[in-house]
């Protein structure tokens, strides 16, 4: 391994980290504990890289599916656990300057992530409302029933509510006018209608109306920069672990916001991760791919990039078109087409129905783990100076 | 109808025969079997029908349907609300009932072309009827609510959080114990109030509609309309209780005083929600969806989920927030509120749909306990880290002693709650001796305080003043502990030990300050008279100057405790006065000098006594002026 000048800021961070670790190992090679400390830190880097490598190996069809997001949360939980152990094993260093500043910063970031978790939970509830409308469509166009005008009318009503629920705020008024033309028996005012289906949109109990996911993400990422050589030395290499975990936190929260509907989604967060970190490549590539897919679906951004949501949207739109185009009695061809669409819809519905509950539990678990690790941190590092 | 029923029976039998029989002879065999079961199903009759293309059965269906169409479509197109007139609504419901029965009865024969055509019409009729029912359902919920709830129930709720005197009239929702500076929310039996958001008649109507909608397979729509209306009502009620959606960060950024107000509002809102609003919703739900328990559970969860999460989220934010010790009392309020509401969470959210809400409440309640333990930990840290900067002038009471003792006394007013919180902590092993109970915790904090004070006492360069400082603070500690909850937690042994400790400081003081002076007055009986005379002259001079010095210093010192001050003076007087009196008397009898004794003796015994009684005048005395 080449020996690098520790202070050289242009040198590769990874190499700095490593060379310092090895340098220290030589200096205090007799101390068993120090050796295991370095092994632990290096293993953490490697594991984070491997886990994200695995995530980024997902094909475009799998990326941003509920299953993928759940895997992402699993990865987060694993990283968090490993990081927790590192903190625990190094509490004597972590309790003192300069590492104590890193701890404080990290906890501050992670507390900010809690609001993201809560907003995401509300977002999952929003998807659940869409799922309920889907269920009505499926119930109306049940495979075992004959498909008559009645069934289509019933489905249509649910589909229109669904389409409105999936819309951006700005397209709201026109959509309502349309809906009223279709269904307004008595001419209800748009406000009235907004009220009627309004609860689809204002499903936020955990954050205030002015809360913004975009701003929250920026706050989490604020001042997140790779540690400098001297910082790494001064913290026995822990600065690298802190930077790694903070980046994982930021990325996971960013991806959640990207995938799931929540207030004021915005994905303009810069990931300043030097390529030399083992895990930089998979995270940056995922970042790029997710951004790419968000650009493709610019217009429907408000709902989140989750594959299943996209499928709900797509199936609902096809179904809507079909419902508008049919004449009764149905031709055999149209009926076949309708049955096929229903089948597609049923598949999406099943996927959402099966996936949302465990996803919500996992988001909650992430929340609890963040809180727990912070509490443990406050408990043990607050006392650290006493234990010296 | 009987005729109709028989037709249906034939139709079913024929249908089975046709479906099962792959060819005519097989169908024939099956009919043969049927006819042996029931005399009415004679072979001739059935086989005739078999080829007759079911014209008679279908005619009956056709007939029923036509009449239903006539009845129902008049309602579907009605401009006025159907439920405005009970006769209309019940006729409408009866028709729907019949339509449901007809569809259900004929569906097995849907493969018959003519039946199927009729069924399509029936379904069409049903769908239109259901849309109309759903609309009426919604408007009944909204209208019924508007005319009723605003006038009665909501005002009831409003009165729960308005004026103090109103609360008093209601039996006092929130009682403030007068001599406690910490207001404690106390649940009152008056929560035994159920709001009827809708008039009973409306509820019955809604139930009849819901029953038909579920029977017709429109349960999802019904539940959807129901929960969106009630949710709106509930959220409106919550916001009238002064509760707003706040993110965790917003709660954390809030100035503490604002947060205190918010917590008070939360306490009241949580009680009203869990004891009045939610149970009322549960009851309404159970009545509207009576006999339809799954729909009732689902709808109830949909209605309450958001508000519950909002309530819990705030408590969570408080639990995760700052551990600053002054927050203890408010966090305790939140903890106690949630604890006292746990039975409500258990009973209201006992079904499967709501399980998640109940578990959340439990988790967050536990987290509040953790937060309170964290606050005590922070208190420990504060005591431990309180820097020994400048010594308190005149050896007086240190602010930290006052702060910690008053804090602990106030905290111990919630002794039972704290005991619960610390007992729960059994599995967390801390600092060797596991802090499992509140008394251990208190003991530990007192130990920290005392060792911090000892470090601070080292700031005094004068060891005598150091003793006075420790004596003062020790005395204050004992004083605050005795006869309080804190005292009963620490135990009599602890108190005895600490009284002894204060006495020890007192002895130290006396020894290091006055015993030296006493030594000066020691008489020398062995030397020659002229030597004695000279030495006594020197001694009296030395005494005078040292006594002046001590008095000058110590009259400025502080002993805050009246009784202790008296004790100290008395004990000083007790050793000094006899010794000084002896010395003077002896001095006056010494040849040669005796005559001129007045030249040397500056103070009479009374003077000394008076001076001693001027000790420890403290800040109001010369010390204050000297600064």
UniProtKB/TrEMBL annotation, chain A:
<dbReference type="InterPro" id="IPR008511">
    <property type="entry name" value="ROH1-like"/>
</dbReference>
<dbReference type="Pfam" id="PF05633">
    <property type="entry name" value="ROH1-like"/>
</dbReference>
<keyword id="KW-0812">Transmembrane</keyword>
<comment type="similarity">
    <text>Belongs to the ROH1 family.</text>
</comment>
<protein>
    <submittedName>
        <fullName>Uncharacterized protein</fullName>
    </submittedName>
</protein>
<feature type="transmembrane region" description="Helical">
    <location>
        <begin position="238"/>
        <end position="260"/>
    </location>
</feature>
<dbReference type="GO" id="GO:0016020">
    <property type="term" value="C:membrane"/>
</dbReference>
<keyword id="KW-1133">Transmembrane helix</keyword>
<keyword id="KW-0472">Membrane</keyword>
UniProtKB/TrEMBL annotation, chain B:
<keyword id="KW-0813">Transport</keyword>
<dbReference type="Pfam" id="PF03081">
    <property type="entry name" value="Exo70_C"/>
</dbReference>
<dbReference type="GO" id="GO:0000145">
    <property type="term" value="C:exocyst"/>
</dbReference>
<dbReference type="Pfam" id="PF20669">
    <property type="entry name" value="Exo70_N"/>
</dbReference>
<protein>
    <recommendedName>
        <fullName>Exocyst subunit Exo70 family protein</fullName>
    </recommendedName>
</protein>
<keyword id="KW-0268">Exocytosis</keyword>
<dbReference type="InterPro" id="IPR046364">
    <property type="entry name" value="Exo70_C"/>
</dbReference>
<keyword id="KW-0653">Protein transport</keyword>
<dbReference type="GO" id="GO:0006887">
    <property type="term" value="P:exocytosis"/>
</dbReference>
<dbReference type="InterPro" id="IPR016159">
    <property type="entry name" value="Cullin_repeat-like_dom_sf"/>
</dbReference>
<dbReference type="InterPro" id="IPR004140">
    <property type="entry name" value="Exo70"/>
</dbReference>
<dbReference type="GO" id="GO:0005546">
    <property type="term" value="F:phosphatidylinositol-4,5-bisphosphate binding"/>
</dbReference>
<dbReference type="GO" id="GO:0015031">
    <property type="term" value="P:protein transport"/>
</dbReference>
<feature type="domain" description="Exocyst complex subunit Exo70 C-terminal">
    <location>
        <begin position="265"/>
        <end position="614"/>
    </location>
</feature>
<comment type="similarity">
    <text>Belongs to the EXO70 family.</text>
</comment>
<comment type="function">
    <text>Component of the exocyst complex.</text>
</comment>
């Amino acid at each position: 391994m080449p020996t690098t000048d520790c202070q050289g800021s242009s040198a590769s961070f990874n190499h700095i980290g490593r060379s310092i670790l090895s340098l220290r190992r030589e200096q205090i090679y007799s101390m068993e504990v120090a050796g295991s400390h370095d092994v632990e830190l290096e293993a953490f880097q490697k594991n984070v890289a491997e886990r994200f490598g695995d995530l980024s190996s997902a094909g475009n069809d799998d990326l941003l599916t509920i299953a993928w997001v759940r895997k992402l949360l699993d990865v987060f939980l694993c990283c968090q656990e490993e990081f927790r152990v590192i903190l625990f094993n190094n509490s004597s260093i972590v309790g003192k300057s300069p590492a104590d500043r890193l701890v404080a910063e990290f906890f501050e970031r992670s507390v900010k992530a809690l609001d993201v978790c809560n907003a995401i939970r509300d977002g999952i509830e929003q998807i659940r409302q869409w799922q309920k409308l889907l269920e009505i469509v499926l119930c109306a166009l049940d495979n075992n029933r004959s498909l008559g005008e009645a069934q289509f009318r019933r489905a249509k009503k649910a589909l229109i509510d669904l389409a409105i629920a999936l819309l951006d705020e700005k397209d709201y008024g026109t959509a309502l006018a349309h809906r009223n033309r279709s269904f307004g028996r008595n001419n209800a005012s748009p406000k009235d209608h907004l009220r009627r289906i309004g609860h689809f949109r204002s499903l936020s109990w955990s954050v205030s109306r002015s809360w913004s996911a975009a701003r929250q993400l920026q706050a989490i990422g604020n001042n997140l920069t790779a540690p400098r050589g001297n910082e790494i030395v001064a913290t026995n290499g822990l600065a690298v672990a802190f930077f790694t975990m903070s980046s994982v936190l930021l990325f996971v929260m960013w991806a959640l916001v990207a995938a799931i509907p929540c207030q004021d989604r915005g994905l303009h967060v810069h990931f300043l991760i030097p390529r030399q970190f083992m895990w930089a490549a998979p995270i940056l590539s995922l970042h790029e791919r997710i951004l790419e897919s968000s650009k493709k679906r610019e217009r429907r951004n408000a709902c989140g990039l989750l594959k299943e949501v996209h499928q709900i949207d797509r199936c609902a739109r096809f179904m809507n078109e079909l419902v508008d185009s049919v004449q009764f009695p149905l031709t055999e061809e149209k009926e076949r087409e309708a049955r096929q669409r229903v089948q597609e819809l049923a598949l999406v519905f099943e996927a959402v129905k099966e996936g949302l509950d465990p996803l919500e539990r996992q988001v909650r678990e992430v929340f609890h783990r963040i809180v727990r690790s912070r509490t443990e941190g406050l408990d043990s590092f607050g006392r650290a100076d006493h234990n010296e | 109808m009987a005729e109709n029923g028989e037709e249906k029976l034939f139709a079913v039998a024929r249908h089975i025969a046709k479906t099962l029989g792959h060819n005519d002879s097989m169908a024939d065999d099956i009919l043969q079997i049927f006819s042996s079961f029931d005399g009415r199903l004679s072979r001739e009759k059935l086989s005739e029908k078999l080829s007759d293309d079911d014209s008679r059965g279908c005619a009956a269906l056709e007939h029923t349907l036509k009449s239903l169409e006539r009845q129902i479509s008049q309602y579907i197109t009605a401009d006025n609300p159907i439920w405005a007139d009970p006769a209309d609504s019940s006729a409408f419901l009866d028709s729907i009932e019949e339509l449901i029965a007809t569809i259900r009865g004929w569906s097995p024969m849907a493969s018959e072309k003519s039946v199927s055509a009729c069924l399509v019409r029936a379904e069409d009729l049903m769908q239109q009827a259901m849309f109309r029912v759903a609309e009426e359902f919604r408007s009944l919920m909204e209208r019924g609510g508007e005319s009723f709830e605003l006038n009665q129930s909501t005002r009831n709720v409003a009165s729960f959080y308005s004026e103090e005197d109103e609360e008093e009239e209601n039996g006092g929702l929130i009682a403030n114990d007068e001599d406690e500076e910490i207001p404690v929310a106390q649940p009152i039996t008056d929560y035994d109030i159920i709001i009827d958001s809708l008039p009973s008649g409306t509820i019955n109507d809604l139930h009849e509609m819901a029953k038909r909608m579920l029977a017709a397979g429109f349960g999802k729509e019904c539940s959807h309309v129901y929960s969106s209306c009630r949710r709106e009502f509930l959220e409106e009620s919550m916001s009238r209780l002064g509760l707003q959606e706040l993110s965790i960060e917003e709660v954390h950024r809030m100035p503490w005083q604002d947060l205190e107000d918010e917590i008070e509002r939360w306490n009241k809102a949580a009680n009203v929600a869990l004891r009045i609003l939610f149970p009322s919703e549960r009851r309404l739900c159970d009545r509207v969806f009576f006999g339809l328990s799954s729909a009732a559970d689902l709808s109830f969860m949909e209605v309450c989920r958001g508000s519950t999460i909002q309530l819990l989220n705030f408590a969570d934010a408080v639990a995760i927030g700052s551990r600053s010790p002054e927050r203890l009392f408010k966090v305790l309020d939140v903890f106690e509120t949630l604890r006292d509401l746990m039975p409500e969470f258990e009973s209201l959210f006992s079904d499967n749909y709501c399980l998640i809400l109940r578990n959340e409440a439990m988790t967050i309640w536990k987290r509040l306990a953790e937060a309170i333990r964290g606050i005590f930990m922070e208190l420990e840290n504060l005591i431990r880290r309180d820097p020994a900067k400048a010594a308190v002038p005149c050896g007086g009471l240190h602010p930290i002693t006052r702060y910690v003792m008053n804090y602990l006394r106030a905290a111990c007013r919630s002794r039972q709650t704290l005991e619960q919180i610390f007992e729960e902590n059994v599995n967390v092993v801390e600092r060797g001796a596991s802090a499992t109970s509140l008394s251990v915790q208190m003991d530990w904090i007192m130990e920290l305080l005392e060792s911090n004070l000892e470090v601070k006492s080292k700031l005094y360069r004068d060891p005598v003043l150091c003793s006075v400082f420790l004596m003062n603070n020790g005395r204050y500690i004992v004083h605050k502990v005795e006869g309080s909850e804190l005292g009963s937690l620490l135990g009599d042994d602890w108190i005895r030990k600490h009284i002894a400790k204060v006495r020890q400081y007192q002895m130290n003081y006396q020894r290091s300050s006055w015993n030296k002076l006493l030594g000066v007055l020691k008489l020398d009986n062995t030397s020659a008279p002229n030597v004695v005379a000279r030495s006594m002259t020197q001694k009296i001079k030395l005494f005078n100057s040292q006594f002046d010095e001590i008095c000058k210093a110590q009259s400025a010192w502080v002993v805050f405790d009246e009784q202790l001050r008296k004790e100290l003076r008395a004990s000083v007087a007790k050793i000094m006065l006899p010794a000084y009196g002896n010395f003077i008397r002896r001095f006056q009898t010494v040849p040669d000098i005796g005559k001129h004794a007045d030249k040397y003796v500056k103070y009479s015994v009374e003077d000394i006594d008076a001076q001693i009684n001027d000790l420890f005048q403290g800040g109001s005395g010369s010390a204050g002026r000297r600064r």
